[in-house]
Amino acid sequence: MALSRTSSTTYLRLCILSTLGVFAMNTTAATSELNIVSAMNDSELPEVELDKIVVTATRTPTKTSNVIAQTRVIDKEDLKRFQGQNALDIIKRQPGISHYTNGGPGTTSNFYMRGYDNKQILVLIDGVRYSSISAGGATLSLLPADQIDRIEILYGASGSSIYGADAMGGVIQVFTKGANIGRSNVSVTAGIGSHNEYLYGASAQFTNEKGTTLGLSANHNETDGYNATLPSNLPSQTDNDGFKSNNYSLSFSQKINDNLKFGVTGIYSKSKTDIDSYDDYLTNAPALENAFAEQNNGAASAYIEHSDDNGSNTKLTYGYSIDESTTYETSLKNGSGYNTNQQQISLIRSQNLPIGKAVFGAEHLNQELKLNVYEAADRKVTSGFAGYNLVNNTFDLQANLRHDDYSDFDSKTTYSLGGAYHINQNLRTGASYAKGFRVPTFNDLYYPDSGNPNLKPETSDNYETFIEYDTDIQSTRLTGYHNKVDDLIGFVSIFDANGYYAGGSSENVDKAKIEGVTLTSDWIVDSYLFGGSYDYQQAKNDSGGLEDGNFLAIRPEHKAMVYAGYRLPSLDVRAEYQYIGDYYSDVANTDSQLVNSYGLLNISGNYKLTDNLSMTARLNNIANKKYITLPGYNTDGTNFFTSLTYNWF
User: Fold this and answer.
1) Element (H, E) at 442
2) Which of 6-15, 241-250, 344-353, 414-423 has the lowest mean pLDDT?
């Protein structure tokens, strides 16, 4: 049912009031519920864990309190607050990460971690590389939160020596829904939101005593969207830019015996995004009507894993990922298409030693790009790596070494070394060093009128130090980092003798220095959750040229977030305020490209209406803050999403 603008506004206000009313009434009810919490069994209490297990940081399960590099785990309880949203919506709220978007869902976006942009950040789905090898970076905005079981974030360049190129800024790993099944169940979900958004879907999870697990999930999400471009951005279109997607995920595993199992995982999204576009072959041409882009994105893997009786294991995995996009500009009757696929096979051995654990293995990666814009040969990478991890009550140690042999570049060896000392059972301090690199994307090398096939890989030196204090009720960490990047790839403009623009190309001309501190603190006191984070960052050009000392684009100097929540078995409500400081959207730091600071207030919650029926709701930008993330492009005002889920156990 389509609503008029007046009806939509009235409906939004009613939803806000009713949602806040539900939370208010149930907070009152929760007070009496709190009195009987002490009489419950531990299994009935909500799962809240500060010291979580992370795999991405070491390629073997490790407690976050023993990992050297800064990590972040967003588990299924956290993800409930983001129903109807996507992976970028989740990631952009985490410490050390900034972003911009060119409008609503599905439009062009980019994210940055500790000053590195998404081309320098590796994204994995169940261990499989997921990105566009043409433009670089991963389209996290096309991964729906409803298909995700958990997300792990590894900050810093230690990922380069574990996973190879494109990880010198960090690693984000997404684990698909259904990988962690507690008991068999079937669920259906239906939700509505602002801009005539609606979502419906179903999932089924099955497990038995014979070691079989199966998870299936599918949903459809659609919204009218909002106008992506501001009137001052020419060409201007005042129409709403809609988005719709169909999303599917699969997870299956089967134990053959106590030591051997195999499985498959997969996630796939097919989406369509309305865009604002214009005929770039005509001067002062009007904006094109009904332009849109179609995207197909996903990753799948099949594996077999053998575990020894002493806890060591060997895993053989084949992975395949796609990133396809075709843009249609109606008046031109054409479509520019990019078709990326990556095939990966890896063999990894985790070996327990008398002291510590060794992780080693080999990988082969084939990257293929088919498009109608330029020609590019396949890229093949063969790699070998080894790591050592030591965890005890006094010292934590992690060392990694990796060698990558490229078909189109020289081979590269990276390494990292980090250690931590436990001053006492609660206080720990440590430091690490990592060597990072990134190979040029195919757009960097071959894009018409800007590509340069003679580019060299970017390299970096990354230093990190930290001190953290952990107890049963809180985890607080202060991290400092200092990074230097050489051969940074940038676009160099060429002007003729009369001063007119005559083209340009990508060159290894820039250097950068990125340094800063991150403070995170998370607390759990009885049923109350609260905490926050603060980032101070200086990401600047260090090339010695005209732009030396300028801030890198989309890297705010200050970012902060505070939150407070209340969690019981039947109720989970949380309010958060996020502040983003001023930043420039261009490398020249011109005043017209300054993005002013802004703050956003959001509230989200889940309420268990019955044993089988639950409700989730989220209100974003409650104060209806007017802000931008990129000059010329619009952002959403107050918006909401609410849904009901029914489970059969």
Assistant:
1) helix 442-446
2) 6-15
